[in-house]
Amino acid sequence: MPAQLSDAEIQKLLAEPKPLPPDYEARLRPKPKSGHEEAELQIVGLNGSVFRVIIRKSIFNPLDFSVILAYQPPDTNILFRLRRYNGKSHEHSNCLERERFYEFHRHTATERYQAGGFREDAFAEADNRFAQLHEALSCLFEDCGFQLPQVRQLGLFGTRKP
Prior knowledge:
This protein is of the alpha+beta class. The protein has one domain (7-158). The chain contains four helices and eleven strands; from the N terminus they run H-E-H-E-E-E-E-E-E-E-E-H-E-H-E. The chain has helices at 7-15, 24-27, 111-115, 133-143, and strands at residues 18-19, 31-33, 36-44, 50-58, 65-72, 80-86, 92-94, 99-101, 105-108, 123-126, 146-147. Strand 2 and strand 3 (36-44) form a beta hairpin. The radius of gyration is 17 Å and the shape is globular. The termini are far apart.
């Protein structure tokens, strides 16, 4: 059975600082996988939580993509989807609110949807900040506590510049 997390636990995980490795862009370059392209990157947050960034995109429809932040609870192989940024390739329905829309959208894990027997990230809201996969990935990084790698500038003889 999947782990159940409270809204407070979800927010704490989203806010946990997540340092990206210097080669994150190369590691997130999608590779072909039966009808779509996919890439995955494991990140360990500064509090020791294990996360995965997963990106998927259709090779047929450029509007069909997902950028996912998943959490892996300790001593499990479960992936709990904290956030998911989806393209405008399908209609989304929020069952509990009885609303539908056809937009680029951002899913968020909620205690309420888990308690209702739905997938943890079944709730979504329209999001006009992205229209392409790379823009959705930037939103994920901005919204979810990611830290971009620091680029060191070296002067002559390898001394660090301020």
